[in-house]
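job 3f2a | input accepted
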Amino acid sequence: MREVAALELNHAPPKPVEEPAQPMLPHLIMPAHHDVRESDVIMRRLHGNLAAAAERGPADFEDLLLVPGVGARTVKALAMVAEVVHGAPCRFSDPARFSLAHGGKDRHPFPVPLKVYDETINVLKSAVRKGKLGREEELQALHRLDNQSRQLERYVTGPDLKEIIAGEFDQSASFGGRSVFGREPATEDESSDREVKTR
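job 3f2a | predicted structure (199 res):
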């Protein structure tokens, strides 16, 4: 009887292999440390983002996006956000780089610049809202910014990561820098700049 059952099992048609309901999504492998190190960032990509933002400039981008008040620092953040929106999965091999768009609530790599954060959100909301109405100028401007970043990263250079982060800390109070520890105090340079402007 067992032999017959075993023979029947051997002659049974093989079960079809089930396809997963959703294909396997790409995943990120994060480092064990929390701070952002130069080894975590592909610097040529970061320099490409920064150069594209500098080349576009806030005045040009303000016209492209039709959003008043977009500053140079917001354009830098938008260059990185545009890459998240339009980037291919291979572009996300250094996720720490994207923390340089808006910092972190624990001050790593620097405090969140709330003014920049809010401007970035407003630009994206406006782009999506207008895009739904068929006016895609803002979405196209973000796409052009991403394309420009990719072209520039091939040959542009810039400061090292420590210098970039130090610059963000220096300007943190002027951008409304905040963390779980509270508001960022003005540095001596920022305090003296305000005194000169008020005189």
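job 3f2a | The chain has eight helices and three strands.
job 3f2a | closed
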